[in-house]
Design goal:
Low-confidence stretches: 1-12
CATH superfamily: UbiA prenyltransferase
Mean pLDDT: 90
Radius of gyration: 22 Å
Oligomer: single chain
Structural class: mainly alpha
Number of strands: 0
CATH topology: Tetracycline Repressor, domain 2
Helix content: over 70%
Number of domains: 1
Length: about 300
């Protein structure tokens, strides 16, 4: 009987294990498609929302609104990545940095990506319905802008600017609307700062792929700026810092906030040093460094309300 028992018990385990492994692999691919394994992009989108929520809430944002925005940024960033990869699925295989993405590598079918995108958009829609009508209207505009972004880079020479307008900064007016029911001037100035910042860091990101983008015909600000790329990035960095200074003046912020802006400026200097030779790996490091720029500004705002 001892010899027979394993033969009876083993086949169910052998049948179950491959099913679990297949399910795990599918979920892993879906997570990679949604960039859940690369949270830096989420942080870059989340920081402007947090800046706006803290300023609009005078240092005490509504906990429910804060929760909706944090989850909303995560979900919308994932949805944006999925639809971007779906539209670029025949281009990404020819770009070294993107050729291993699940759709480009044909590990995920296009129909699967569309289903995942639909589920994410439904989740985002549910979250935004927890907010007021003005914020819902702004969210609908933001969703249209986000979905249209992958098409814009086919013909618009500055898709990084469009990314900033749509994806990078739209959470700012939404945050002011959700928190205060209004769209004050300081909110629009902060929005401009977020747009310029996203345009800048995505230009650095585009420097990584410039050679491949030239071959496949994708537009980017890195291609448009050519040898003036570092200069234009520097100009955008200065513009973003100036916009943040204007926000501080409009809110009568003091030294804590100013310290956060100064820290962001120091990080920008470091990024200029990294991209000096335009080496792809160094440009990627400069791009990733921007998550600390957002953190520095947020800490300045947080400390201003705590001790200012």
């Amino acid at each position: 009987m001892a010899a027979i028992t394993p033969e009876v018990a083993e086949p169910p385990r052998l049948r179950e294990a491959p099913l679990r492994h297949r399910l795990t692999r599918r979920l892993t691919e879906y997570a990679r498609l949604a960039r859940l394994d690369r949270p830096v992009g989420t942080w870059l989108l989340l920081w402007p929302a947090l800046w706006a929520l803290w300023i609009a809430g005078a240092g005490r944002p509504n906990p429910r609104v804060l929760g909706v925005f944090v989850l909303g940024v995560v979900v919308m960033r994932a949805a944006g990545c999925v639809i971007n990869d779906f539209i670029d699925r025949d281009i990404d295989p020819y770009v070294r940095r993107t050729r291993d993405r699940p759709l480009a590598a044909r590990r995920v079918a296009p129909a699967e990506a569309l289903v995942l995108f639909a589920l994410l958009m439904m989740a985002a829609a549910y979250l935004v319905t927890r907010l007021d009508p003005l914020t819902i209207r702004l969210a609908c505009i933001g969703a249209l802008l986000t979905v249209s972004y992958p098409f814009i880079k086919r013909f618009f020479p500055l898709p990084q600017l469009y990314l900033g307008i749509s994806f990078g900064g739209w959470s700012v007016p939404m945050a002011f609307a959700a928190q205060t029911g209004t769209l004050p001037r300081v909110g629009w100035v902060l929005y401009i700062a977020a747009v310029i910042w996203a345009s800048m860091y995505d230009t650095i990101y585009a420097m990584v792929d410039r050679d491949d983008d030239l071959e496949v015909g994708v537009k980017s600000s890195a291609i448009l700026f050519a040898d003036l790329d570092r200069v234009m990035i520097g100009v955008m960095q200065l513009m973003m810092l100036y916009a943040l200074v204007l926000v501080g003046r409009g809110m009568s912020f003091g030294s804590w906030y100013q310290g956060g802006v100064i820290a962001a400026a120091v990080l920008f200097v470091w990024q200029q040093w990294l991209i000096r030779a335009r080496e792809p790996a160094a440009c990627m490091r400069a791009f990733l460094n921007n998550q600390y720029v957002g953190l520095a500004v947020f800490i300045g705002i947080l400390l201003q309300y705590l001790y200012g």
